[in-house]
Description:
Elements: H1 2-21, H2 27-49, H3 55-82
Helix pairs in contact: 1-2, 1-3, 2-3
Amino acid sequence: MGTVVAVWVVAAIGGIAIGVFVPPAWRAEWLVVSVGxxxxxxxxxxxxxxxxxxxxxxxxxxxLGAAVVLGVISLGFGLASVVxx
Length: 85
């Protein structure tokens, strides 16, 4: 389970980095790139664990969780752009 959560943490760090360093016009594209990077990371971590039982479930949980984390961060970006400041 720790390997799954590790991908979620990387997704959160990537999403925050996108919010800080990427202009608002390009954030959606970079969030998609971040999900793809999390997919590759999940495969690499699970292959490194070398445990066949539950491989697909662990990769799926990793990627789905990363997508949810990045979706929540994306929602924050959207709300921040609507709020006058």
